[in-house]
Amino acid sequence: MARVGRKNRRRDDEAPLDQDRARRGLEVVHSAADGSWSVRQIPVDAALRTYRCPGCDQEIPPGVAHVVAWPADERGDVADRRHWHTACWRARDRRRPTGRRPAAP
């Protein structure tokens, strides 16, 4: 039986996979009634810090997959990024972000 060569071998001119970029996830732009947002899925292995979700005002602990979103107009900076529970992000058109809790005395 003749052996057929593999057709899906990586070509030498292809760039290698950027592991850090793959870990961070792909950025996509979502347009909705509240504007256009750049959104990135944060996978479990990249969720290393605790964040507070603006949708429900609850913590997103390390190790929980979630999304990070910021205005897509490119006028913002890192300070404009907000980490959301995935379900809260999807429901943002049905409920408004909560205010931050007051600091404990």
Describe this structure in words.
The protein is of the alpha+beta class and 105 residues long. The chain has a domain of 72 residues. Helices cover 10% and strands 26% of the residues. The protein has 2 helices and 6 strands, in the order αββββββα. Strands 1-2-5-6 form a 4-stranded antiparallel sheet. A two-stranded antiparallel ribbon has the order 3-4. β3 and β4 form a beta hairpin. The longest helix is centred in the first third of the chain and has 6 residues. It is elongated. 10% of the residues are buried.
How much of the sequence lies in strands comes to: 25-35%
Distance between the termini: 79 Å
Which percent bin holds the helix content? 10-25%
Determine the structural class based on helices, strands and strand pairing. alpha+beta
- As residue ranges, the low-confidence spans are none
N to C succession of SSEs:
HEEEEEEH
Tell me the strand order in the biggest sheet.
Answer: 1-2-5-6
Q: Biggest sheet, open or closed, and with what strands and sense?
A: 4 strands, antiparallel
Choose one word for the global shape: elongated
Please tally the helical runs, counting DSSP H or I stretches of 4 or more residues.
2
Gyration radius (Cα, Å) is 19 Å
Strand tally is 6
Q: Quote the average pLDDT.
A: 79
